[in-house]
């Protein structure tokens, strides 16, 4: 099968077009013919080696964390899916590889594609949708009337999280550039702050939750807008003690991870707020819940550009530029 691979971690190298063997199907796997694949900053970060201590991949490695496609074969133990099903998924860590013609995925990580979405639209959803769900629903348990700041509201995660937080009944503030004001307002944002002109710390106060996706300086400012007992959940680091306990690394790596967030945890404690790190995980059942919201019109995909399969590297570069509004997708079939 045709795929895009890397042979080693490098910030300079581009993905290489290659012929790769078809995936080996395990008992509980579905083999998916890839029609479209979402492109995420996570792909660039893995290529660059930023996660090599906690996610030590083997090479050659096929990148890609979002998929929409058709089931063409099932393992002997599969019960939820059949050949011909149109599905979407965020494959589990160590089983990524959607920049390819085929991918094998455990059936527990797969969901039926929303009927009202194209393959390209569906491929834009899994990683950002699960990130927003696991932040707002699973970790924060957002309730009606609470106040939420979602940073970078016009980005992939932000554009989904605004819609979900609004559906949960929260008052939603977000940061973005002035050119994206209409977009984030159309998604449900109540308070929109131009990060180039205004300091959100002087505008927002007593928030219940911050979904943090930016740098350390922004993180520290975000801690200060929370009310006592409020939460900051970061998807951009630093990893915390719970994450260190979850991963299957040795004690030395876990000690390093604990130290990385020590300063932030101390500042959070001083502010009487809670800091948590989220490294989203694959979860088919949560995708099923997201499907219901999409099919009922509560949440809509925000797709900026669709690139052809032969332009995966251009799609990666566009995502890395930070200019995308919503998600970037590669059309494979």
TrEMBL record:
Domain Enoyl reductase (ER), chain residue ranges per copy: 12-330
Gene3D superfamilies: Medium-chain alcohol dehydrogenases, catalytic domain, NAD(P)-binding Rossmann-like Domain
Sorted UniProt keywords: Oxidoreductase
Record-linked Pfam families: ADH_N, ADH_zinc_N_2
Domain of life: Bacteria
Record carries keyword Transport: no
InterPro entries assigned: ADH-like_N, ER, GroES-like_sf, NAD(P)-bd_dom_sf, Quin_OxRdtase/zeta-crystal_CS, YIM1/Zinc_Alcohol_DH_Fams
PROSITE patterns associated with the record: QOR_ZETA_CRYSTAL
Molecular function via GO: oxidoreductase activity; zinc ion binding
Protein's UniProt keywords contain Oxidoreductase: yes
Name of the protein described by the UniProt record: Oxidoreductase, zinc-binding dehydrogenase family protein
Species classification: Bacteria, Pseudomonadati, Spirochaetota, Spirochaetia, Leptospirales
